[in-house]
Amino acid sequence: ARNMITDTEIKLQGVEALIMALGEVQAERFISLILRERFDYTEWHQKLWPVQSIEQISQMAMAQRQKQ
Which of 13, 25, 34, 38 is the most exposed place for a label (fewest CB within 10 A)? Predict the structure, then answer.
């Protein structure tokens, strides 16, 4: 497990990814929505994008960000 990153590193990378995909204001809003509501990521992901891989979703987010 040499390539495993720490919890702190993964949190930082996650926030950076959100900011890149949504912009700072919308990323903050997203985090606040998740904290406010009961949230099960796995269930949400399966319902929202049942057939897409994480890579495909990431590409969609990056393409959307480039449009803005």
Answer: 38
